[in-house]
């Protein structure tokens, strides 16, 4: 427990006067930022779990909240040259099957290229260009830059096969392998959920 692999620190925690009375629901925000102080081992699979503590008159309770990897996505890409180089060499890479995921559901709100690109950008998945897979299926190349201390980049290929009932496949790759399943999970959620 208390592993902080991504090196985040709490800038503004829960306000000390924040009170939840019995039978009510309350919401608050915790502001965090990367500190560069990395601890522990990388997560083996999604989701990312954030450990939280809740103090009440009875005791201090710890629990874990699952969160999607979008919390690690940089809003404005600063490492675009590295991403472009990675995306340009995509066709020459050999990919493991575990780096590919077929979506069971595709939101109709992503049903055309403009809507898809807008949704990706709104969720900090940066569009690169339209392309085709090695099988000739239309696809989008995109990338994610993470808020980790090294500003790691993950490349994405999102293909939509209209000849097979709009079957959507997401492939991701990175030199930082542990980020790949996290980005696949987040991208699948972005494309599958209705907003």
What does this structure look like?
This protein has 195 residues and is α+β, with helices and mostly antiparallel strands. It has two domains: 8-71, no CATH class; 80-192, TATA-Binding Protein, CATH 3.30.310. It is built from three helices and nine strands, in the order ββββαβαββββα. The protein has helices spanning 80-88, 113-122, 179-192, and strands spanning 8-12, 31-34, 48-55, 60-67, 100-102, 126-132, 138-145, 153-161, 167-173. It has a five-stranded antiparallel beta sheet. The radius of gyration is 19 Å and the shape is globular. The two termini are 34 Å apart. The mean pLDDT is 78.
Concise overview:
It contains three helices and nine strands. With 195 residues, it is an alpha+beta fold. The protein folds into two domains: 8-71, no CATH class; 80-192, TATA-Binding Protein, CATH 3.30.310.10.
Walk me through the topology:
Elements: E1 8-12, E2 31-34, E3 48-55, E4 60-67, H1 80-88, E5 100-102, H2 113-122, E6 126-132, E7 138-145, E8 153-161, E9 167-173, H3 179-192
Antiparallel strand pairs: 1-2, 3-4, 5-9, 6-7, 7-8, 8-9
Attribute tags:
single chain, 195 residues, alpha+beta, TATA-Binding Protein, 2 domains, five-stranded antiparallel beta sheet, two-stranded antiparallel sheet, 3 helices, 9 strands, 17% helix, globular
Mean pLDDT figure = 78
Shape: globular
- What is the terminal separation in angstroms? 34 Å
This entry's quaternary arrangement is: single chain
Within the largest sheet, what's the order of strands? 5-9-8-7-6
Order of helices and strands: EEEEHEHEEEEH
Q: How large is the radius of gyration? A: 19 Å
């Amino acid at each position: 427990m208390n592993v902080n692999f991504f090196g985040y620190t709490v800038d503004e925690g829960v306000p000390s006067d924040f009170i939840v009375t019995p039978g009510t629901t309350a919401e608050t925000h915790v502001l965090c930022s990367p500190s560069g102080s990395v601890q522990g081992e990388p997560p083996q699979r999604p989701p990312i779990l954030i450990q939280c503590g809740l103090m009440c008159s009875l005791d201090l309770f710890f629990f874990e909240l699952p969160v999607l990897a979008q919390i690690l996505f940089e809003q404005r890409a600063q490492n675009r040259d590295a991403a472009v180089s990675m995306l340009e060499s995509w066709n020459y890479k050999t990919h493991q099957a575990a780096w590919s995921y077929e979506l069971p559901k595709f939101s109709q709100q992503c049903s055309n290229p403009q809507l898809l690109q807008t949704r990706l950008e709104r969720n900090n998945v940066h569009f690169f260009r339209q392309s085709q897979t090695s099988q000739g299926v239309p696809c989008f190349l995109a990338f994610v830059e993470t808020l980790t201390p090294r500003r790691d980049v993950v490349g994405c290929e999102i293909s939509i096969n209209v000849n097979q009932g709009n079957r959507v496949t997401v492939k991701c790759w990175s030199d930082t392998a542990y980020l790949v399943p996290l980005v696949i999970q987040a991208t699948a959620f972005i494309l599958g959920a209705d907003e």
